[in-house]
Design goal:
With about 120 residues, the chain is an alpha+beta fold. The chain has three helices and four strands, in the order ααββββα. It has one domain: GAF domain (Beta-Lactamase, 2-Layer Sandwich). Helix content is about 35%, strand content about 30%. Strands 2-1-4-3 form a four-stranded antiparallel β-sheet. Strand 3 and strand 4 form a beta hairpin. The longest helix is centred in the first third of the chain and has 16 residues.
Length: about 120
């Protein structure tokens, strides 16, 4: 496992590099899984339901960290296992940083978007 600081730096590098949203989110999930050592998934809001997206690890009960874009919840970053306060702070920060990439099921009202 890596430290939370190392994981955050790795996530920031991936997000700064950009690319296809699906690829970026898969990389973020992989980094968090490696860093936290437990189950990690991003689930997307589609209409009124959550739809499972990229995941890593063996699924367990999770704690959800909402991902919002322009004030609207568009996804949840979910992590399983025992989470420390440092883990929670990392996941909350990543939920904010990854928000532009989590618009898979979100209606942009025809407006183009660039993460």
């Amino acid at each position: 496992m890596t430290s939370q600081g190392d994981a955050l730096e790795a996530v920031e590098r991936v997000l700064e590099s950009g690319g296809e949203a699906d690829d970026v989110l898969r990389q973020v999930v992989a980094i968090l899984h490696e860093g936290l050592g437990g189950f990690v998934r991003i689930s997307f809001v589609e209409e009124t339901a959550l739809v499972a997206g990229p995941a890593a690890g063996d699924e367990t009960a999770t704690t959800a960290f909402p991902i919002a874009f322009q004030g609207n919840r568009v996804a949840d970053l979910e992590a399983g296992g025992e989470l420390t306060e440092e883990d929670r702070a990392l996941l909350e920060r990543v939920a904010i940083l990854a928000s532009p990439y989590a618009l898979v099921g979100w209606d942009t009202s025809g407006e183009p978007w660039n993460p």
